[in-house]
């Protein structure tokens, strides 16, 4: 773990009532990173985000925020983070304006101009009580609250889940604006793979509490292949591919193998080795995700 | 929880159940035989007034009866039956008192004051229940004030007050407290109320402060200090109200009012309530079973802590009769300092994933 990481976890485990939720998490986010966190429902995405942000301590291992232990992060470091939680955990008894004023009171760097622009763009009615907002409106308000103090690290837990397509597009545009500043970093979890492909330069894939992929998005796409081979070459393919994700036997039609390339694995001569009947295809991120969750 | 208990619970709420028990005990106890029992009756009326106020507030909040959902209508009917039973019990007590000559016409004026006060309290409680979320916000609009503002514990305070004043008179033998005069008894009740109220409010602070950790740039220790500052503001207001209750009663009912004793009550009330406040602040960090049960923590507090709090507060108030009070005040202050250190230690390692705030807060 290096101190230049905005967020970093080393061998972090988390258990609830003896049940393991996260296992052996090693990951970090640095300036310029836009990390998309993918995982099926219940994979532990929210727990991972909450652990990285210091809402909950890891059962074992370390989690650091800007070099300090996350749960003990002092105010100076916390103010560099903007967070949009998954649930609309806002204060329902306040009006939208009061809510934003409350959040703004904590930050010297609060940008009123940006706040007003976002509020206008998304049509958030600040005169209404938060409790009277629709789910989408609450989500927009939470996002404005997280963006307007221009955080160095922006963490969003399924931010677009409740947004309509127009608001979603505007939100993505805003995130793209954020990411143009190389000193800033974004971590966001989502189920919408197309959003992730549009924004992220790194991907974390969480499966059953384990981080099964932590790296560049492009590398991931290059590292997962689907190989269609005749039955005669199936054993050879199995021998050649070191990290097989899934194998589907289609009888006389052959065999379909999905594999992940190991860091030191060379696939340049794979087609030649497997023969002319073998067909190798690269997958989209959505296909990769589906293959990883059979 | 058994279905019968659940129905009772839903229909009456913790303080309603306690008030019912109190009323039954008072009826079983027989005719009011002395000044203390007369005071008990007065407090019984006070409790009924609070209960009536709470119901009025419910209707005010719902707009009109016809807008209440069917389920709430049934609940409200049940609660009105409790209220009717309470009023009937009071009527029986007063009639029997008059018939046996214990209540005389010369006490009629007092009785009139009492009834008027009961009605006044009912209206005040109704207003409180309807607009309870605003008082904390008036304390400076601090962030934690918002957390406190959305705290449902506020709406229980009047009922807590009724129970706090009432319980000591019902369980006086069990608690082994015998007030030398009405002022000391009411002052003890006021101190107990301040203590319980602060405990009630403080125990729900940490789950709500989760918002501050998530959305605002503060450390855990700072968040605790923000909450602490707001709670202290609330405590100051609480002490004023708790001081006013015995003082006003004493001014009305006592021919010679002792200002010195009344002035000493202020630090006593402060000391009686500040310890429970820090205890509540520390307790709020625990993710325990009673937090998950609706209103169960209130029952827990009422059944276990309230009589103890009252007894403790009473022990502090009792020396009012032999001023000075330096020793109990110092002991109370030392306990508060120790409890604050404990609370701070707990807050530094708080696990907010175990305490999701009530989703109702953000929903209509």
**Count of discrete alpha- or pi-helical segments spanning 4 or more residues of chain A:** 11
Count of discrete structural domains of chain A: 2
> Spans of chain A of 5+ residues with little confidence (pLDDT < 50)?
none
Summarize the helix and strand pattern of chain B as letters.
HHHHHHHHHHHHHHH
Approximate shape of chain B: globular
Largest interface, counted by CB within 8 Å of the partner chain's CB: A-B, 39 and 30 residues
| Average predicted local confidence, pLDDT of chain B | 65
Largest sheet entry of chain B: none
Helix-strand blueprint:
The complex is a heterodimer of chains A (294) and B (364).
Chain A: E1 7-16, E2 19-29, E3 34-39, H1 45-52, E4 60-65, E5 68-69, H2 75-78, E6 81-84, H3 96-104, H4 112-122, H5 135-147, E7 153-157, H6 165-179, E8 185-189, H7 193-199, E9 202-207, E10 210-216, H8 217-223, E11 224-229, H9 231-240, E12 243-249, E13 255-260, H10 270-274, E14 279-282, H11 285-292
Parallel strand pairs in A: 3-8, 3-9, 6-7, 7-8
Antiparallel strand pairs in A: 1-2, 1-4, 4-5, 9-10, 11-13, 11-14, 12-13
Chain B: H1 3-29, H2 35-62, H3 70-99, H4 108-131, H5 133-137, H6 143-149, H7 153-170, H8 172-175, H9 182-202, H10 205-215, H11 220-253, H12 259-283, H13 289-292, H14 296-317, H15 326-348
Helix pairs in contact in B: 1-2, 1-3, 1-7, 2-3, 2-4, 2-7, 4-7, 6-10, 6-11, 7-9, 7-14, 9-11, 9-12, 9-14, 10-11, 11-12, 12-14, 12-15
